[in-house]
Design brief:
Chain A is an all-alpha fold. In chain A, about 75% of the residues lie in helices and about 0% in strands. Chain A has eleven helices and two strands. In chain A, helix 5 packs antiparallel against helix 6, helix 6 (about 155-195) packs antiparallel against helix 11 (about 295-330) and helix 10 packs antiparallel against helix 11 (about 295-330). The longest helix of chain A is centred in the middle third of the chain and has 39 residues, at about 155-195. In chain A, about 35% of the residues are buried. Chain B has a domain at about 90-160. With about 260 residues, chain B is α/β, with parallel strands linked by helices. In chain B, helix 4 (about 115-125) crosses helix 5 (about 145-155) and helix 6 packs parallel to helix 7 (about 200-205). Chain B is globular, with a radius of gyration of 18 Å. The chains are: A mainly alpha (about 325), B alpha/beta (about 260). The interface of A and B includes residues 293 and 294 of A.
């Protein structure tokens, strides 16, 4: 056989599978030195085949095989690069704070107040719900144990101390990481995708002063207030268990709570929450500005912001608890 | 000439804000029909009415005699399956490779599986000059390449209708000319009917066979016909101004 032709008299309709199959047939004929005559094929099919063959095939670069040592080296370089980005971002924030104090940066007060509203008043419903439930859970778990020793009255001490020292600050930190930190990362990530941040830079406006500082300051300002609010609601949540399950009177419960908590302990929680506010704002803005140029990258930045913020909250909590204990012993 | 798409007394509005009223035109089989007009006159909105993304305030859109907006959901879906759409930004799904982008409509509707789909995808990419780019993500491509990849996705199901929203927007003159040529060749090969939203005069005169001119002040269409015919015969100064790029006198268009 030296030549292949086609009889298309019976062909009524066709779709893309026909030219795909013809391409394969052509390759097969070429490898066997058989001529293929497309002359009798429908005009549209001939045109599609011509069009498909009119541009050369792009050969994507083949990824070279990397040895384990090479992989380790790449990982090290990437880690160093990430560390450098983090240090640069932190440095820029410090410099911009300096510039702000000298009135040399573009800081929009209107933006700041809207972030205060978003991180403060608008967060109250979720903080209320979570805090009351945390108080109830702590009281309930404590009551079950303490009842065995007839010491159920100390549930008030347990809930009060736990909320004021740890849970109030930490729960509001985690809530704000998932709520506000994620929102900051998504906002800045989308601005990165839409080249809005490039537009700021080319105008000579620092995105740190213009976008990051108002967000971080709003969180730093609001977190201690949210923490105090969460402490109170957690204690109220605990009192529900005390009153309805342990038959304590309201005044008795709050009297035990007041005796158990000292001002220093309240301050400890408030300082922690301020640090958490700083870290949540930092993580959200950092990941947002690091975002790539696609919608998938915005999703990754948001997830990463929440994870980073929660990890930083836990690490800083451990460190601060250790430091506060050292100070007490001193 | 077979009428494949008819717009009857179509009125478009955003809430109480009227955009265009009483639009009437017909698109014939094999036409390259251009919806043209100045910025903000409602060209892209008209396209959204034609492809089922926005319901008209009044009037009808008929596909081969079937009133699109009166048809049931199943019938509307069948009509849309016959259409390929190239959005202004390309609208490729950024989290998927080009192969995945083009394979998705095929997996959904073509009834083909695995290898066949991969072969069709490779063929479609070859048609738009992107052979070998199967595993690239949209973000790794230039603007012109993204447009061509989006075109490959639009023709994945061998559509009868091809809708283009500003296909040349953001492209350099050579890329825009090549894309026009590609649209012509694909229209001829697939026998499709093409509806283009454009205000690029070079494209309108190069490939348009019929056109409608929308005006934002009159809030209706001022003219319909072949672009050359409109340039030569239109009595409306706004149409002449648009087609001569504000020169205001008839003659060869200033491109």
């Amino acid at each position: 056989m030296t030549r292949v032709g086609f009889n298309c008299d019976q062909l009524q309709d066709w779709d893309s599978l026909l030219p795909v199959m013809l391409q394969q047939l052509e390759a097969c004929c070429r490898s066997r030195s058989i001529a293929l005559d497309p002359g009798q094929l429908p005009h549209g099919v001939q045109q599609l085949l011509r069009l498909a063959q009119s541009t050369p095939v792009h050969l994507p670069p083949q990824p070279s095989a990397i040895s384990p040592v090479g992989r380790l080296g790449r990982f090290t370089l990437e880690t160093v690069a990430r560390g450098r980005e983090l240090a640069t971002f932190s440095g820029e924030i410090i410099l911009e704070c300096g510039a702000l104090s000298r009135g040399q940066t573009t800081f929009r007060l209107r933006d700041f107040w809207s972030f205060v509203q978003a991180a403060g008043a608008e967060a109250l419903p979720i903080v209320s719900l979570i805090s009351i439930l945390v108080g109830v859970i702590l009281a309930f778990v404590g009551a079950v144990q303490l009842q065995m020793f007839g010491a159920q009255v100390y549930v008030a001490n347990l809930v009060g101390l736990a909320m004021v020292l740890e849970m109030g600050a930490m729960m509001s930190g985690v809530i704000m990481a998932g709520r506000t930190g994620a929102s900051y990362a998504a906002q800045l990530g989308t601005m990165q995708v839409n080249e809005e941040i490039d537009a700021l830079r080319t105008l000579g406006i620092s995105p740190i002063g213009f976008l990051v500082l108002p967000r971080m300051f709003a969180l730093i300002l609001m977190m201690p207030l949210l923490c105090i609010y969460a402490d109170l609601l957690g204690i109220i949540g605990g009192s529900l268990v005390g009153v309805f399950m342990l038959d304590l009177s309201v005044s008795e419960y709050f009297s035990y709570t007041r005796r158990a908590i000292h001002l220093n302990q309240c301050l400890e929680g408030i300082i922690k929450s301020t640090v958490y506010g700083l870290l949540v704002g930092f993580a959200g803005c950092f990941r947002g500005l690091q975002c790539g140029r696609s919608s998938a990258a915005v999703g990754e930045a948001t997830t990463s912001a929440v994870v980073t913020a929660i990890v930083l909250i836990i690490i800083s909590d451990a460190l601060m608890t250790f430091i506060f204990n050292l100070l007490k012993m001193g | 000439m077979t009428r494949v798409l008819t717009v009857e007394n179509l009125t478009m509005a955003y809430g109480k804000r009227l955009l265009q009223r009483e639009l009437n035109f017909t698109v014939n089989q094999g036409d390259i029909f251009v919806i043209m007009g100045g910025s903000g006159c409602g060209k892209s909105t008209l396209l959204r009415h034609l492809i089922g993304l926005k319901q008209p305030a009044a009037g009808r859109v008929l596909y081969g005699g079937i009133d699109f907006w009166q048809a049931g959901a199943e019938q509307r879906s069948r009509i849309l399956r016959r259409a390929g759409i190239l959005y202004q930004s390309g609208a490729l799904w950024s989290g998927m490779t080009l192969e995945e982008n083009i394979a998705l409509p095929l997996q959904q509707y073509s009834g083909q599986k695995g290898t066949s789909i991969r072969e069709i995808v490779a063929f479609k990419l070859a048609l738009v000059g992107l052979s070998g780019f199967e595993h690239y993500y949209p973000a790794e491509l230039s603007g012109g390449m993204r447009k061509r990849a989006a075109l490959a996705r639009a023709i994945a199901l061998d559509p009868e209708f091809l809708f283009f929203d500003e296909p040349s927007a953001g492209l350099d003159p050579i890329s825009a000319k090549n894309l026009d040529q590609l649209i012509l060749e694909i229209r001829d090969s697939l026998g499709a009917t093409v509806i283009i939203v454009s205000h690029e005069l070079a494209s309108i005169f190069a490939i348009g066979t019929n056109a409608v001119f929308l005006d934002s002040e009159a809030k209706t269409m001022l003219a319909a016909g072949a672009p050359e015919q409109l340039l030569a015969e239109s009595a409306d100064q706004r149409v002449i101004d648009f087609l001569t790029r504000g020169k205001g006198t008839r003659g060869a268009p200033t491109l």
